[in-house]
Design brief:
The protein is of the alpha+beta class and 185 residues long. It folds into two domains: 4-89, no CATH class; 116-184, His-Me finger endonuclease fold (3-Layer(aba) Sandwich), CATH 3.40.1800. The protein has helices spanning 78-98, 100-115, 119-128, 161-169, 174-184, and strands at 4-8, 11-15, 29-30, 36-37, 57-60, 67-70, 145-148, 155-159. The strands form four sheets. Strands 1-2 form a two-stranded antiparallel ribbon. A two-stranded antiparallel ribbon has the order 3-4. Strands 5-6 form a two-stranded antiparallel sheet.
């Protein structure tokens, strides 16, 4: 079954074929004096052509068993996907809040992906700085942030969250930082 974006009994959304729109909705919305006002193009009920190179196959929904056309990796028809996605997001947020080891793994993966730092390299940097911020010298209650040069990508060191945000707020601009120091003096 091919779902089309357009009118559904609950409003705009995905509708299965054969579900007709109320009279006049597909043609336009009536204005204050009965004059037709054309719908915006994204409100029209029409088949949208997939982007070039997109493979469309007929699949069977893993939840409701209806057949639908979609990408080869899709498991759910559009209405079931919405329900599945909401449930997954809810479970993910609970898992993230309740499992501290999960958050540690996610941060380690992000450091590897963004800065090329392995967990061992990060721990070596923390030990070299004695677990303290490279600017203010305080030991943060959580973890240290990786500070890097946005132009070259080179890692400069580890900072607490406040110092890292301050540098980001100044745009890593030395002249602006000097003006801020002069302002405070």
């Amino acid at each position: 079954m091919r779902y089309t974006k357009g009118w559904t009994p609950s409003g705009l959304g995905y509708r299965p074929p054969g579900l007709a729109a109320p009279p006049g909705l597909a043609l336009g919305i009536l204005g204050g004096r009965g004059t037709p006002v054309p719908l915006a193009s994204h409100h029209l009920i029409r088949e949208a052509a997939p982007p070039l190179g997109t493979v469309i196959v007929t699949r069977t929904c893993a939840v409701c068993g209806e057949s639908f056309e979609g990408n080869p990796n899709g498991k759910y028809c559009p209405p079931c996907y919405v329900v599945h996605r909401k449930r997954y997001d809810r479970e993910y947020s609970v898992r993230r809040r309740l499992d501290p080891a999960y958050l540690v793994r996610e941060r380690a993966l992000a450091r590897k992906r963004n800065y090329g730092l392995s967990p061992q390299e990060f721990e070596d940097m923390v030990a070299a700085q004695d677990g303290r911020c490279g600017i203010c010298g305080l030991a943060p209650p959580d973890t240290l942030c990786v500070d890097h040069d946005h132009d070259t990508g080179r890692v400069r060191g580890l900072l607490c969250r406040k110092c890292n945000k301050a540098l980001g707020g100044f745009g890593d601009n030395i002249d602006v930082i000097r003006k801020a120091v002069a302002w405070l003096a």
